From TrEMBL:
Its main location: membrane. The chain crosses the membrane at residues 6-25, 32-50, 62-85, 97-119, 182-202, 222-242, 275-296, 308-330, 350-372, 393-415, 427-451. It is a multi-pass membrane protein. It comes from Paramecium tetraurelia. It comes from the Eukaryota. It is found in: Membrane. One of its GO terms (molecular function) is potassium:proton antiporter activity. Residues 24-450 form the Cation/H+ exchanger transmembrane domain. PANTHER family: SODIUM/HYDROGEN EXCHANGER, SODIUM_HYDROGEN EXCHANGER. This is Cation/H+ exchanger transmembrane domain-containing protein. One of its GO terms (biological process) is sodium ion import across plasma membrane. Keywords: Ion transport, Membrane, Sodium, Sodium transport, Transmembrane, Transmembrane helix, Transport. Pfam families: Na_H_Exchanger (PF00999). The lineage of its organism: Eukaryota, Sar, Alveolata, Ciliophora, Intramacronucleata. InterPro entries: Cation/H_exchanger_CPA1, Cation/H_exchanger_TM, NaH_exchanger.
Length: 575
């Protein structure tokens, strides 16, 4: 045990450094390098040192277990995203989020798969390469063709994007539409990529040969997975809300409120995974339902506590993932066999990786603008409200590949005795990891400059057209109150007259109080929320005095010195 103790210790040290440096960068508004890029880079440096110290221990420890990712880390990130989602902006821009997150991802998958198969088939006819798949980029005499099953699974994994870098650089208050589109598309994209991977895996395991109806069967399984997962998430989220409405003793403790909410969400995720459905879509729906209804069934202190807790867990999971990606960077040329407990050297393909990087960029660009062209042909140009500058930002943000892609490709397992298959899978896994690292570090670093350029161009264009009678849409939402569509009116009517009455405790008598709370919470400080919550919880003066002494937070007007306090205050404004 002691010989491996240095590895987890180094990992924890790097994660702590990542969090501290990340918060410091935010406090001084330093965007030259994004915190995720910094986490990967420092992980690479420490990982290289650990590999030099003990290569055998390094190879065993830094092999990402897909089970840990999908059942521990990913649920924390997705649930926090859904629970802290700004629902008004999400619903307002639902058309763009679904178009980019759902349809664009499918198109991206088709383009990537087509180009990958074409390269694998045509490369043997190219004089410059003259092989089917180059390994190491220098040995032109070796070749290793990929099977269609492997290429299909690879194309499904590489569609998963990561918009974290862009989200931290887009001011959500100044540009709420752009922020919600990028955030929503990132969440939906991850879910859709996982569903595509699951649908492909199920079809391959069935053993059926490819027929003319296979694409339609794939689309049917895909839609079935989406719909059933959404319904399960809707049911679990509303059931959890109903439990808090009927079992009021659950609200006596903020700890119970937080743990119960998380366990119910994880139960919904586990149900979908057990049924080979999309736990990500289900978990996202559970978070949205809990945030919309359950918040009114728990205490005010519980609202803040749950949000801060889930956000903190998500931050820890993200920090671990990005640092781990850096650590695993040097582990792609070796294979540790659990049977023989020996370390073997395997091949990677730099030519294949560079080509796939180009395909990733091209497929992202085409998928975004194909969706735009489809919308224009169906609805006309006046209905599409995203400007070309906003679409450019969405397109560039989606070129960054994230941890979901790497975790999906890590689920591919080769037979320990099949050397050819081990090399084939390692080529795909190393390709995905290198693309994730490259796009996160390079594109993530270029992100602030690109976003600032696009915003400046949009503002300059608005300034030139300011004398026009009908100005073009701006990046930030118009202050005028927009008329709701018929669908939005129906949803709002059903929500106010039926759903809130069914799932919110004593809604009839608390309706005015809830409405007033929603208005006041925007100007209320976190300290006031805590004071009100504690005063309602206990009438004992000594207990209240002790709580006041324990919780002494600065008001919004004061300049907080702790990043945690800043985060808590931001969350209190979103309730």
């Amino acid at each position: 045990m002691s010989e491996y103790g240095a590895v987890p210790f180094a990992l924890m040290i790097v994660i702590v450094i990542y969090i501290v440096i990340g918060e410091y960068f935010k406090s001084i508004h330093f965007h030259l390098i994004h915190e995720t890029s910094f986490g990967i880079i420092i992980g690479m440096l420490v990982g290289l040192l650990l590999k030099w110290m003990d290569e055998n221990a390094y190879a065993q420890f830094f092999s990402l277990n897909a089970t840990i990712f999908f059942y521990l880390l990913l649920p924390l990130i997705i649930f926090s995203g859904g629970y802290n989602l700004k629902k008004k902006q999400f619903l307002k821009n639902f058309k763009y989020i679904v178009s980019f997150g759902f349809l664009s991802t499918l198109i991206n998958f088709i383009i990537t798969l087509t180009l990958t198969i074409a390269f694998n088939s045509w490369s043997k006819n190219l004089r410059i390469i003259n092989i089917e798949l180059v390994r190491l980029g220098t040995n032109l005499d070796s070749h290793l063709p990929l099977s269609y099953d492997e290429m299909i699974k690879y194309s499904a994994t590489i569609c998963a994007t990561d918009s974290v870098a862009a989200l931290n650089l887009i001011p959500s208050q100044q540009y709420p539409k752009l922020f919600s589109v990028v955030f929503g598309e990132g969440m939906v994209n991850d879910a859709v990529s996982i569903i595509i991977f699951q649908a492909v895996t199920i079809l391959q395991q069935s053993g059926k040969s490819f027929e003319w109806y296979t694409p339609f069967e794939f689309i049917g399984r895909f839609l079935e997975n989406c719909i059933i997962s959404l319904l399960i998430g809707l049911f679990v989220g509303l059931f959890s809300t109903w439990c808090f409405k009927k079992c009021r003793f659950l609200t006596n403790s903020t700890t119970t409120e937080t743990v119960f909410a998380f366990l119910m969400a994880y139960m919904g995720y586990s149900i979908c995974e057990m049924l080979n459905l999309s736990g990500v879509i289900s978990l996202l729906m559970i978070g949205i339902m809990m945030s919309h209804y359950q918040g009114y069934n728990i205490s005010q202190l519980g609202r803040v506590t749950t949000r801060v807790t889930f956000e903190s867990l998500s931050l820890g999971a993200e920090a671990f993932l990005y640092v781990f990606l850096g650590f695993a960077m040097w582990n792609q040329t070796t294979y540790y066999s659990p049977l023989t407990q020996d370390l073997y050297y395997v091949e990677v393909s730099w030519v294949f990786t560079l080509l796939q990087l180009g395909i990733v960029i091209l497929a992202r660009y085409l998928s975004i603008y194909i969706v735009y062209w489809i919308s224009i042909m169906i609805q006309g140009p006046k209905v599409w409200k995203l400007t070309k500058y906003e679409m450019s930002i969405c397109c560039f943000a989606g070129m960054v590949r994230g941890s979901v892609a790497f975790a999906l490709i890590e689920t591919l397992v080769a037979s320990p005795t099949d050397g050819i298959q081990i090399n084939q899978i390692n080529i795909l896994q190393s390709c995905v990891l290198y693309i994730v690292v490259f796009t996160t570090v390079i594109f993530g670093t270029a992100m602030p400059f690109f976003i600032n350029i696009q915003i400046k161009k949009q503002l300059d264009e608005e300034e030139r057209k300011s004398i026009s009678e009908v100005p073009t849409p701006v990046l930030s939402d118009s202050p005028k109150k927009k008329e709701l569509s018929e669908a939005q009116k129906i949803i709002k009517y059903m929500d106010e007259h039926y759903f809130k009455r069914w799932f919110i405790y004593d809604y009839e008598n608390r309706k005015e109080k809830i409405t007033q709370e929603k208005k006041q919470i925007k100007t209320e400080t976190l300290q006031e929320i805590y004071e009100k919550s504690f005063s309602e919880a206990s009438e004992d003066e000594s207990v209240k005095q002790r709580n006041e002494d324990f919780i002494s937070l600065p008001t919004i007007e004061e300049k907080p010195t702790s990043p945690l306090i800043v985060k808590m205050q931001e969350l209190s404004q979103q309730i």
